[in-house]
Amino acid sequence: MGSGLRGRGFGAALRCPLLPSYPPSLAMARRSVLSIRIVEGRNLPAKDITGSSDPYCIVKIDNEAIVRTATVWKTLSPFWGEEYEVQLHPTFHSISIYVMDEDALSRDDVIGKVCITRTMLAEHPKGYSGWMSLSEVDPDEEVQGEIHLRVELLEGGQRLRCTVLEARDLAKKDRNGASDPFVCVSYNGKTQESTVVKKSCYPRWNEGFEFELPNPPAEKLCVEVWDWDLVSKNDFLGKVVVSVQGLQAAGHQEGWFRLQPDTAKPREDRRRGSLGSLQLQVRLRDETVLPSHCYQPLVQLLCQEVKAGHQAGGVHLVTLLDETTTAECRQDVAVNLVKLFLGQGLVKEFLDLLFELELAKPCEPNTLFRSNSLASKSMESFLKVTGMQYLHAVLGPTISRVFEEKKYVELDPSKVEIKDVGCSGLHRVQTESEVMEQGRQLLQSYLGELLDTIGKSAPTCPPVIRAAFRQLFQRVGERFPQHQHTQFVAVTSFLCLRFFSPAVMTPKLFHLRETHADARTSRTLLLLAKAVQMVGNMEPAAGRAKEEWLAPLQPALQHGASQMRAFITRLVGTEEEQESGEGWPCAPHTTVVKEGLLFVHKTRGKGPLLASASKKLHFCLTTEALSFSKSPGAERCGSIALANIRAAEKVEEKSFGSCHVMQVVYVDEAGQQETAYLQCKCVNELNQWLSALRKVCGNNPQLLHAYHPGVFRGDKWSCCHQKDRTEPGCGRTRHSITLQDWSDPLQPDVEAQRLFQHLHGLQQPLREKYWQLMEAEGPQSGPRSCGEGPPLPLELRRLFEALQDLERCHCQLSPALLELQT
């Protein structure tokens, strides 16, 4: 039997070599990627006098706030549907999701929390999905940070000495945003206390405590950290238990120890089940990314398959991948493939191949691309990766108008509520028909404005998207020459049904708004999204059979379908596109990564920011520098070159009375280290800025490994109280913590690694599916036994060879990297 897969092969010279002499720190990167989707809550307790709550969620990684969901007002069953992906250092321990009730006049109330440890996530490699009950927040379990200890035996093992050096990142227990920590060291029934360090979460003690060892010696030495309070009882900050038996074998032990909650103390019965629950989807991926050249055999094989295109009479590798990928993994695989081929400049060819393979299947014109196949998922992912700026430009004005006007729009007679509309005059309440007519006019106005904007947007649509839709339009026309209408529906099935309409319905999830819509606005957006869907179906009358109350909107929908048809004709026009527009959109030499207004805190120093008279400046982060001006579009006041940035970190709340301040540590032109303190408006903006800065500066060779979370005020640092301004930092930097964003640059090695992980587990299913598909094409020469079949084609054999070589590289280098990073 001949080879069922077509394409150009490549020689053994391209196979990934083992790397015995490659430095582990340079050979690859070890990272953890956490995907979180906070779906909804139910049965939450009422915290307001109205019998309701205004819930939102705070996600903390090891007690550091990373993201905050939007507030859903006046409900005990909120829906958020918000997704986040966070890149973390592999040594993180736990994720805590706090459900809060927002209060305008007082401190926000804590409703409850869900805690998920790294160990729990490791037990669910495909991710955890389900409902989790909220538990009460126990202050004695809200511990964080580490303590530096040195424990040793003296006088031939007759005495035990514990030196408490310092601690870092302790929990904040006082209103000033700090704590007053001291240490209790206990052994064999005796306890000794350290001095109290006032107003510090990064205390330094350098105090030693000695104990006599009984015979036989007691097993455990306990070190507890407390927050001293003058009026109320002291607050527990965490503890460490050291095994004396293990110490006798080693003689001494020194290092940083993570503080743990005191589970030995009795707890009052907690309310379980009465605080409600959260529906979550959480997945942890530990990735070891090898050097680029290791992935070249796999990447080149995939590229050659795409370049060769669809060949009749065989089974394509992409078909095998589609057939063997489960529905729960197909979205991730589609995103990885789209980004990989975008980086290779072959996304147009990849999508065209998917279109051909999908159209080669038995299909009907009215159900084309309506399934969740690899082709549908890839095109949907492609639009989100390449078209978000276009989406914002098209939908933004109409969405903003709907949010600002807050008009009551309802067309369904069964849902009309006269009381929500009010009076049309001084003496007469509007009738139901008047309410629906007013709603029709408003909805028609929103739809008309949106369709007008879409109709004019063809020239501004990214060329790579236009090229993809042009291919789709042509392929469908060739497959269904008698159904020209199907060509237009094929385009709108992606553009309207999978892109525009979902963004209209949930603008928060597409970054069109910072908050969720209230009930009235949400209903308007739902009706508008439904109208966009019906226009996208190109047969508006078909929807009237299901929902007769949409009949008054039919003229507008029919006109909209004509507008959409004219728009698609322009969108897929056959005019020649410039070569640079067919692949990933070419970025200018300097690309804007993030910009916005930030408040500048003045401190002692000589940096360009400190010399500015303005307290609020417009900052612009590009791929070259962090610049600032007095207002958007104004002349630049100054800038900090990215190469001079050493760290981007958070600042302690007590330093400026705000928990949304970041610091940018940089070196000025004279080589002196300076720090700029910039305040953001919320925790989300703070982390977005930190993430953006860390991404663009991630390859700087002189990044700091430690920093001061406080400020140098008076004659000392507010965090650790050191009096030397040049004293090394007391806290660890967090360069590895970043948030994934749709505008992130492509990472081809990461996408290749994720595809390798997926394909590595599919080797036997790929063999079985190939044999199954070949048998379906015609009778084979005799029966095959279990695990045997016709010879595998050359490309499939080379795929398995590339996967095996990558596995060997991982097996050889991973232990060295793990030891280095540990």
From TrEMBL:
For this protein, the record's CDD domains field holds: C2B_RasA1_RasA4, PH_CAPRI, RasGAP_RASA4
- Looking at the keywords, is Repeat present? yes
Where does the C2 domain lie? 12-132, 139-257
Q: Name one GO molecular function term.
A: zinc ion binding
Which UniProt keyword terms apply here?
Answer: GTPase activation, Metal-binding, Repeat, Zinc, Zinc-finger
Q: Which protein, by its recorded name, is this?
A: RAS p21 protein activator 4
Q: Which residues form a coiled coil?
A: none
Ranges where the Ras-GAP domain occurs:
329-537
Q: Does the keyword Repeat apply?
A: yes
- Domain PH: residue ranges: 591-698
Please give the biological process terms from Gene Ontology that the record holds.
Answer: cellular response to calcium ion; intracellular signal transduction; negative regulation of Ras protein signal transduction
- One Pfam family here: PH
